[in-house]
């Protein structure tokens, strides 16, 4: 592995569906910033499966990633993907976080973590060298990876932007079926039940609090606050990463929209392929679409951190207790499958349920 340009690494952490892809895309528009996407998935999805880069080209045909591979490893052909994935399985698991958070690592684990994190460090340095960036952004999100990177030789210190979103919104988002366009429509993103999503939300967010107690610079930002005042949020995150942003550099960002150009993101939410003017607005569909029983369940499971992060137990806009979720047929409507269900109202209900 080569030693290239030194750059600050900004790791975006949190549970998926919390808005990290949008935060990364916006940061990636700043001068001096190179946004890499979710590098944690590069080994399998890109090196092995040759999925599409955010620019639209297959990974193997992307000039940016080819240059990064040449700079970091003398070419991607020199990377033993099976070895990297074996190390990932051995050290980058949520259950290993208590050991990774210890003041010292036992020799066998230390060697594995150092080797695994070294692959990421090489990519970060190479991306900075290829682009001349001052800040390299990795939106891998995984808390266990962030704990591994704590032990990496990154030249500069690791800085983590901990992105949180109301867990009820996160839980609702995980119930949706979302296609992965980089897989040419043949694959969909993982889905979780609201209960499972609530447990994961607790675990990952608590892990980033633990990372901060280990001495890593961690700055928490609520996704809702990012959307409320994006220019202020971007300035603060840039300053946290050590980047001085002049006001003209934010011309791409309005109060309620952002202009996005193509990027070279290795993996992530399908939104990474979006370019042009993108509206910045909250997705609060969960307030009415997530059944009351599930909203209550997620709220109860996540209550301690929900309060710590400043989220109300009963947010404004929630329907009254006992109200049916959005899309439910009116009282007295014929059951699905009955002749009356073939009416326009019945068909509309079926379409809503299939989303």
Radius of gyration: 22 Å
Which ranges are low-confidence, i.e. pLDDT below 50, for 5 or more consecutive residues?
Answer: 330-355
Tell me the β content.
Answer: 5-15%
Mean pLDDT, rounded to whole units? 89
Tally the helices.
Answer: 15
CATH topology grouping of the largest domain = Rossmann fold
Helix-strand sequence = EHEHHHHHEHEHHEHHEEHHHH
Q: Could you tell me how far the N terminus lies from the C terminus, measured between alpha carbons in angstroms? A: 46 Å
Shape: globular
CATH class of the largest domain: Alpha Beta
Number of strands: 7
The residue fraction in helices comes out at: 40-55%
What does the main sheet amount to? Answer: 5 strands, parallel
- Strand arrangement, major sheet: 2-3-1-4-5
Overall domain count? 2
Oligomer: single chain
Query: Would you identify the CATH architecture of the largest domain?
Result: 3-Layer(aba) Sandwich
**Structural class label:** alpha/beta
